[in-house]
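Hello,

I think I submitted the glutathione job twice by accident. Can you confirm which output corresponds to this input? Input:
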Amino acid sequence: MIILYDFRSANPPTDPRCGYSPFSWRVRFALRIKGLPYKHHWLELPDLEGIAKSVGADPTSKKPDGSPRYTIPFIHDPTTNKVVSNSFDIVDYLDSTYLDTTKMIPEETRLLQSVFANSDYTLVGQFMYPVIGKTMTKRTPSLVTPRNLEAMKARGPLPELTDEQEKEAWEKFKNVLGGFAKQMNDAGPFVMGKKVSMADAVLFGWFGITRWLWNETTDEWKDMMSWHGGRWNKLIEAFESLPEVEKYCDAEGNLKI
Ligand SMILES: N[C@@H](CCC(=O)N[C@@H](CS)C(=O)NCC(=O)O)C(=O)O
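Support: Only one job matched these inputs. Its output is below.
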């Protein structure tokens, strides 16, 4: 069974709001669309580099000092004994390895999909990020593990936004999504209409992390699900209508069910 290396949050693994990496949510989206079972290996930021090196995961970029930067998500597929990092490359690997599953990166759109996935957190992320930073500082004790929080703060202060700035960032986030919605095929619920692709995984990643911060009971979440004719809700429903493929593990990676 595929092992997905991901950051642990303070929510229990069975909670759909457990993960908080938009990049991991991309892979979780693709795995579910493809119907490929997987289990998580949860880790914390201080352990990332050591674990990535120990399983042979490639770094995905460089740090400002030029040294390799390791990131989650990365996967280990025991069936092929391959380890793959970087969300786009993971989905690409799944496409080319599991040929009888839904292809997420149609050849004729490869460049477009990769630009969308790799452009500086995508436009959505650029606006979302300050809101996340602010919300993390406000809600963190219940969401981020203390070790992760300590490691994040050691790198510098998390974004400090006034309420007004947060509102502006939220509004920009809505407008960017609105811009996408205008260009998207009305047949939906996917970017390519009825055909799901990597671009949906990218958008879903942002919804995954939004739901982690503002769960379904919050006004922010309800607000967002009504935006643009409710089309983002339809994307989430399309994902949730498929059978769950995640096999839940405890913190040590042992299967629970
Ligand atoms: N291009 C990578 C980006 C992944 C990424 O930035 N992951 C973050 C978590 S959301 C990470 O692992 N950060 C580690 C660090 O900052 O040291 C991908 O698409 O998978």
